[in-house]
Specification:
Two copies of one chain form a homodimer. By secondary structure, chain A is an alpha+beta fold. Chain A has eleven helices and 20 strands. An eight-stranded antiparallel beta sheet of chain A has the order 14-13-10-6-5-18-19-20, with helices on one face. Chains A and B meet through strand 1, helix 2, strand 2, helix 3 and helix 4 of A and strand 1, helix 2, strand 2, helix 3 and helix 4 of B.
């Protein structure tokens, strides 16, 4: 076995989810992640924890969703599983990123609404999302599998305690800020983050990580954003997304590619038209866009904004975060723009002022 | 997709587990059963049921078990999953039947003891065990994959209502019997089944099926049995097993091959030394031994006896069935022997007297 797979497993079990004896752990992966699953089972066995592994397959989901009449009910057994678990690890390992492309967006959105309590339950536990390199993800990144493996493990096999320490200055400043403004290309957007908690993301919930993020006050977002990087939601790729916000709500939207997917996303529920997250990427080890949000949003010199659900951990006392069945991140390049906290420039031309 | 895979899925969902709208269903399979999983997801979607699929891999289990110190705890999340489900389908689809061979039998037995409540919970639901043809199972049967597929689907794609009807005469007679005696080769064993319920097994819990079975009174088994067909328990193959029973307990045991595995099995717990099942195979579509109990025990002109747990459904009012963490079937050929109920011959030379 590639020793990097084993090191990845150790990081997930020790740093990301801090697995202890008798912890009940839910793993979720596709067959292409078999090696990582074997490595994880070994690490979990060593620690005396109890794994159960869910078989994740978009091809199987497609067969299910296309056959269903759309009147979904909550899978109570799946909810019970997550209620009773201590930690959950989801391993992205798709065999074909287009597998859901012919499932109607409305079907996907209806299913998301019904299964929302399961997502919420999972997010209330120690949880982590990670990546196993597969041919499908490599192809999507325009890389050979060998080169993609180097990219993935380069981003993951790091000293995460050191990353956490380096990000602390940004977290403190964002946490103290009331207003955030981002100016870059066609983008000029501002929002209040007053009373919200900024979080230093250093590989607990996302592996790889490398970002500091918070939640906007839902009604406060004003301005225009042009997301110049492609994004994929439920297997559908959108490009050149433009959104105009007034009183926190998307009042104008357009996409250069796949506008229908954007419309379906915005129509999921009321919260899908508001922002739930503002994130600032810091990870300069991620040196290229790979059309995979888990990596792209962590890239240094970028900002990402998410339509949909806010993370509870960002929402301060007496504050309300945005609520929705979805959480969809969109990225913009700030390498030639600037970020301001309360009118003060904190990043310009991609460099933080304290660097 | 091979249309036989789709037909198999329909039989499992309609005949075996009678899936209804909103049923919460647990599927369990290895990656080699991917096609059948896709077909099952389609059938479950059509019926508006809710699937969750567990990733079953002996290679992953081996990594876990070998790393563990042996002081296992009950996976509460897995128990919660089965408690909350309506039906469970386990699909045998191994990639390597020797994958657990270097795990100590004591480790496997210790794990079985701890996870017993999960097995019991699953058996309290609508459940079915079935087979997807893989190269590992084909090789184990000394068949090419194509020939093994023909064998598997020949045994499975049948009119199960008609099978059920044909088996009813045997069920009635076994249900009414007090004493059963089996004489074949070196075997001469008798036991009481007084007050126990005989069950007509026609594809609800095992697919394929084709047997009538009951539970012995645990203390009543007397005599000697020579199992002339190989058997596999937790990946370990035993051959030529001989057992002598007195007052229901195994007092002498030997195996021509892998006696250590037999000893580990018998030492699992107290109930592992007593019989939990007497079954009579009726399925003449299964025309060869394939070293796979799901098929072998259903073969016409055979009897099987199981060490370990009795099925609750066999145990009559005021009766006690055998209890254990294990249930291990062993087969003997009756094609040149005879079966007696209360001193009356019901099968001789492999033919039932009413045939």
């Amino acid at each position: 076995m590639d020793p990097r797979v084993e090191e990845h497993a150790r990081i997930l079990v020790d740093w990301s989810t801090d697995i202890q004896r008798d912890d009940d752990v839910v793993l979720s992966a596709g067959p292409d992640a078999h090696e990582l699953l074997v490595a994880l089972e070994r690490e979990l066995g060593t620690r005396g924890a109890n794994p159960i592994t869910l078989y994740s397959s978009d091809e199987a989901s497609r067969a299910y969703l296309k056959a269903h009449d759309g009147d979904f009910s909550l899978p109570e057994h799946t909810l019970a599983l997550y209620e009773a678990c201590d930690a959950a690890l989801h391993i992205r390992s798709d065999a074909n990123l287009a597998a859901l492309n012919d499932v109607p967006g409305k079907t996907l959105a209806a299913r998301s609404r019904v299964t929302k309590p399961i997502i919420e339950e999972r997010l209330s536990k120690r949880w982590c999302l990670t990546q196993h390199p597969t041919n499908a993800h490599a192809q999507n990144a325009d890389l050979s599998l060998a080169a993609y493996r180097d990219f993935v493990y380069g981003a993951i096999l790091r000293d995460w305690a050191a990353v956490e320490e380096r990000q602390e200055e940004l977290r403190k400043r964002l946490d103290a800020a009331d207003e955030v403004r981002v100016v870059a290309g066609e983008t000029d957007v501002q929002m209040s983050v007053d009373g919200m908690h900024a979080i230093n993301s250093s590989g607990r919930h996302n592996m790889p990580s490398g970002e500091v993020f918070t939640a906007p006050i839902p009604d406060s977002v004003e301005g225009t954003v042009h997301f110049d990087k492609p994004l994929i939601h439920q297997g559908r790729q959108m490009e050149g997304v433009r959104l105009r916000f007034a009183d926190g709500v998307v009042v104008d939207s357009a996409a250069e590619r796949n506008e229908e997917a954007l419309d379906d996303l915005l129509d999921t529920d009321e919260g899908a038209r508001r922002l739930g997250e503002l994130g600032i990427g810091t990870n300069r080890e991620i040196d290229r866009f790979t059309k995979n949000m888990l990596f792209d949003e962590k890239m240094g010199e970028t900002v990402h904004l998410a339509l949909g659900r806010a993370y509870d951990a960002n929402v301060g006392e007496g504050r309300t975060g945005n609520d929705s069945a979805v959480h969809v991140d969109m990225i913009l390049d700030t390498s030639e723009g600037r970020i301001e906290f309360d009118g003060e420039v904190v990043q310009e031309g991609g460099r933080f002022v304290w660097e």
